[in-house]
Write a structure and sequence with these properties.
about 150 residues, about 80% helix, globular
Length: about 150
């Protein structure tokens, strides 16, 4: 990659890999593109790359790496104001990957996924599914955690 726009096909390929359960391959490609873009000082695709990497680490249940990329993503979301269906999809994939083994982490993702799906004009069926899964995940928490979460 000699310039930032050259990363777009690789990022698109990585997103497709995530959709087809090839997270390891996606992660390697995304890490390479992130390093290249950072070296070039090109930040346009940083948000989507960090979100996609957070999704890869959620799938692996690597909480430390997930947290790093998730927090970076949240900051970039706030700063950039970017809105896209890819953002909502990645947040949903993240939540789904975490909901069984790390429900508290999933509950950090679901509200953002819902928010971004609403911002993109997502259909009511998809929104209902996300809200229902968030509720199911909340119900799986121990009572004291569930009460804390309900107060948020």
């Amino acid at each position: 990659v000699d310039h930032g726009i050259g990363a777009l096909p690789s990022i698109s390929l990585a997103l497709m890999m995530l959709e087809t359960d090839r997270a390891d391959e996606a992660k390697a490609l995304l890490e390479q593109q992130l390093a290249n873009l950072e070296r070039l000082g090109y930040t346009l695709y940083s948000l989507i790359i960090h979100l996609a990497l957070a999704t890869c680490y959620a799938i692996e249940l690597d909480e430390t790496s997930w947290r790093k990329h998730f927090e970076t993503s949240k900051q970039l979301l706030e700063e950039s104001g970017q809105i896209s269906r890819d953002i909502a999809v990645l947040l949903e994939q993240m939540a789904e990957a975490l909901c069984q083994e790390r429900p508290l982490l999933a509950l950090e993702c679901y509200p953002l996924a819902i928010e971004y799906l609403e911002k993109t004009g997502g259909d009511e069926g998809a929104l209902h599914k996300l809200r229902f899964r968030q509720e199911l995940t909340t119900d799986r928490l121990p009572r004291e955690e569930r009460e804390k979460w309900s107060r948020k």
